[in-house]
Request: fold
Amino acid sequence: MRKSKPKKRYLAPDPKFSDPMVTQFVNCLMYDGKKSIAYSIFYDACELVEKKTTESGVEVWKRALNNVCPQVEVRSRRVGGATFQVPSEVRPSRKMSLGMKWLIKYTRSRGEKTMMEKLAAEIIAASKGEGAAVKKKDETHRMAEANKAFSHFRF
Reply:
């Protein structure tokens, strides 16, 4: 067991919107250390969202992220030889990172031609409360609800 918790690393805000959350999202989006390409994909997707919805691209993205972030999740807990799926609340930092990862995962599996178009379409869908990433969140919540009986095993 570790003696002390590691210090929280804080991210630098992104150049265009001055928001550290955008930097975190771009870091998740990035492949092979190509951060400038990841930034251009995100910024172009935001512009495309602005054109399609006539709202601020970043505001739509934040709304989409809030719609995707899970409140509860199930964790495996071993009690007396049996493994139980125990529902537990999600920490705010984990909530955000899970939401970002799900949004990016389901963006990549979409059918549009370029990554920018895929991301814009998934952001718009998630902001309306639809799309695969929101479905994943609902599924997670449903699983936690189904296993509510084991919540007394919480640690």
Remarks:
- Residues 35-53 form the longest helix (19 residues).
